[in-house]
Amino acid sequence: MRLTSVGRLGSDQVESVLRAAVLAPSTHNTQPWLFRCTPGGIELHADVSRVLPATDPDQRELLLSCGAALFNLRTAIHALGTHPATVLRPRRDEPTLLAVVRPFAAHAADARYSVLAKAIPHRHTNRQPFRAARVPPAVIANLRHAAEAEHAWMPVLDSPQRERLRGLVEQAHEAQLADSAFLAEWRQWTGRANHSRDGVPVRAAGNDNWALRDFGEATGPQGHGGPPGEPFIVVLGSFGDDPIDRLRAGQAMQRLLLTATAAGLDASFISQPVEVPSARRELRQLLGGGLWPQMVLRVGYGSPATWTPRRPLTEVLLDDRLLSA
Ligand SMILES: Cc1cc2nc3c(=O)[nH]c(=O)nc-3n(C[C@H](O)[C@H](O)[C@H](O)COP(=O)(O)O)c2cc1C
Fold this sequence. Notes:
This protein is α+β, with helices and mostly antiparallel strands and 325 residues long. It folds into 2 domains: 11-122 and 309-322, NADH Oxidase, CATH 3.40.109; 137-300, 3-Layer(aba) Sandwich (NADH Oxidase). It is built from 11 helices and 9 strands. The protein has helices spanning 11-21, 60-79, 111-119, 137-149, 159-177, 180-189, 202-205, 243-262, 272-275, 277-286, 313-316; strands at 33-38, 41-46, 82-88, 97-106, 190-192, 200-201, 232-238, 266-269, 292-300. Strands 1-2-4-3 form a 4-stranded antiparallel beta sheet, covered by helices on one side. The protein has a 3-stranded antiparallel beta sheet with strand order 7-9-8, with helices on both faces. The chain has a two-stranded parallel ribbon with strand order 5-6. Helix 1 packs antiparallel against helix 2 (60-79), helix 2 packs across helix 8 (243-262) and helix 3 (111-119) packs across helix 8 (243-262). The protein is globular, with a radius of gyration of 19 Å. Bound molecules: flavin mononucleotide. Residues 124-301 form the Nitroreductase domain. InterPro entries: Nitroreductase (IPR029479), Nitroreductase-like (IPR000415), Nitroreductase/BluB (IPR050627).
């Protein structure tokens, strides 16, 4: 496969940055993104054929997933010494065009982006129990800075807030178990054969109960950020909740996840309290009413996690006239 060159990026570099982009996490590994390479830049589009109507009716998580892919794309371009000038939702009349990245200007190498770019292929959702090792405060500060650098916020939870959040997770989980459309979608996209190109394969899901994961599964006597033996819980919030805020939140989520990976940490998603609208409203109140909760993550030290497959690049490119043999 040979791609067109874009700006300062030769065709091999365009291919390598797109390969980095598609390693982003996405709800049920739907990979709801498409790319178009034009002389003016690399476009990121939402793949609306991959919407999850029951799990994600307002496509908030689709935008988070695409935001994560956008952060990988920007980071991989940065690491090549090129500035990824990015415009979000550039055309009002084309809402599925989420961003254009224009790699036209050189910039001085930035070690922070090189570290994050190296972490991209090593980040995997880890649904297994974590060890009870403490996440050092300096690393937690780095996670917070990662969120802030992308216009989002990682609030500190005190013990009562954490307990209340645990209750919301349980409440939201029960609501989802009672929702037959949600369950049908969950069954459709998880427990896939390991060679499947999308969805969550059996080997990554671990077992049928991964949706039941809770806060208290770290082993051993000492966790951090909560009662002994519990992993560190991150709530990622944004300052607004429109499509651009959600795209920004997805970029912040991915920056935070890559920062965690680079520090040797594992993470998994606890999306129940942001997927069920009543729980999300309560979580927003719990955070003081000023932030829109976008994702809850469990962060800690796990044993090596397994990778999930991705669609081939040819399936996520919108204009294959730009491919040459
Ligand atoms: C917005 C969003 C919500 C997610 N929700 C969950 C979840 O509730 N439970 C879960 O186990 N994984 C969840 N995931 C993780 C995806 O299943 C995972 O990213 C996907 O299978 C690809 O695997 P990878 O992250 O290892 O690359 C979520 C990911 C995203 C981006």
